[in-house]
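PROTEIN DATA CARD
Card holder: 4-hydroxythreonine-4-phosphate dehydrogenase
Chain length: 340
Origin: Geomobilimonas luticola
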Amino acid sequence: MKRPIIAVTMGDPTGIGPEIIARALRDSEVLLSCRHLVLGDLSAMERALAITGEPSRIEVLDHGMPPVDDRPDRIYLRPLSYLSPADMVFGAPSPASGAAMYDYITTAAKLCLAGAVAGMATAPINKEALNRAGHHYPGHTELLAELTGTEQFVMMLAGDRLRVALVTIHEALADVPRLVTFDRVLSTIRTTHRDVNRYFSANPRLAVLSLNPHCGEGGLFGAEETRVISPAIAAARAEGIDAVGPLSADTLFHFAAQGGYDAVVCMYHDQGLIPLKLLHFDDGVNVTLGLPIIRTSVDHGTAYDLAGTGKANFRSMVAAILMAARMASVRDRGQGKGEP
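Structure generated from the sequence above:
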């Protein structure tokens, strides 16, 4: 079976994206698992190779895809921007670089939807620059949902020991209680079950967390557990989904990290990402569930303090590419881990 082609988006050219891509594409497991097509800026990629000292050579592909017999010393790049030096200052993203980030993402999504590539793995972007360029999205996830016409999507962060899915994503903590609704919790459980079942583990067991300490302590610390979360879990179980809870976050992760659950449904961003990054700081992967395409990403930001030094850890980029390739292989064999 041919190795799948993964589109790798450069992210913010003024951050560490080009450097971690340059290093990740030399990883032996990546080379064995997939072919790649980098969508980005030629000058930024050339600069990254000079900084990292990687002996790769860039092969520009304005059209077409990398060959089946691709070479391990090549980076196959489709240039989508030609930024000026003023727009490539490390740690100083501009509207022009924000527009470039948008073009990398949208092109990758279109290639995925057309079946030209098997999936996409994304380097980190600067959300402020994206918005300054006129593209008003809080992040990759929401942009890709719009591009693919997806209404029900879930952000999941994953590593070998733990997967966490989020009911609310980038929201102020003060707004979370009103956003944790029956429909939103149930939708998150459904989407997580479907795609974990499809790509990772058949008939997955899901842990669903409480919002309040000690599951609300019988209403003393809040009523969301009895009013919203428990009914949503009951509805999911009535559909045949193996979801249990609500469970207290202060104890649950101990058991989840030991393999007791295939994924944990969390009510808000830091509830899930703190334990995930404690275990998978260097190799965590952001996976967008619910899309008609495969999309993975690094689980970190642009790291401007490291940009240009060649010292940024590239393991999360490696993990994101590998996970996209494995998900594509499962899907393209026509036999997911479970039923789609």
